[in-house]
Amino acid sequence: MTSKPKKKKFIVEENETIDDCLDRMSKEGYFPVRRTEQPIFKEEKRDNVVEHVPCGRSITFEGKLM
Fold first, then answer.
1. Distance between CA atoms of 36 and 50, rounded to whole angstroms?
2. Residue ranges of the domains in the chain?
């Protein structure tokens, strides 16, 4: 019999809303304790200079076992 980890990270997928991710967490038996967002950048070359342009964000929830 394997036990669940006490903490687990849940990433909001590309075609998923935040509410969908929170529902998925509760179905697995976890509740959110922390939310982190990180920007996603892409490189664009303009006039022989590479610029980092924001193109999205990654949202991650840390869940604790209920």
1. 27
2. 7-65
- Which residues have C-beta within 8 Å of that of residue 50, sequence separation ≥ 6? 43, 44
Q: What is the largest CA-CA distance in the chain?
A: 60
What contacts 24+ positions apart, CB below 8 Å, involve 52-56?
none
Q: Over the stretch 11-54, which tens digit does the pLDDT of each residue have?
A: 999 999 999 999 999 999 999 999 999 999 999 988 888 999 99
Q: Say if residues 51 and 44 touch (Cβ distance below 8 Å).
A: yes
In angstroms, rounded to a whole number, what is the distance separating the alpha carbons of residues 11 and 62? 9
Sorted by sequence, the CB contacts under 8 Å of residue 44 that are 6+ apart come out as: 50, 51, 52, 53
Sheet of strand 30-46: strand arrangement: 7-11, 49-65, 30-46
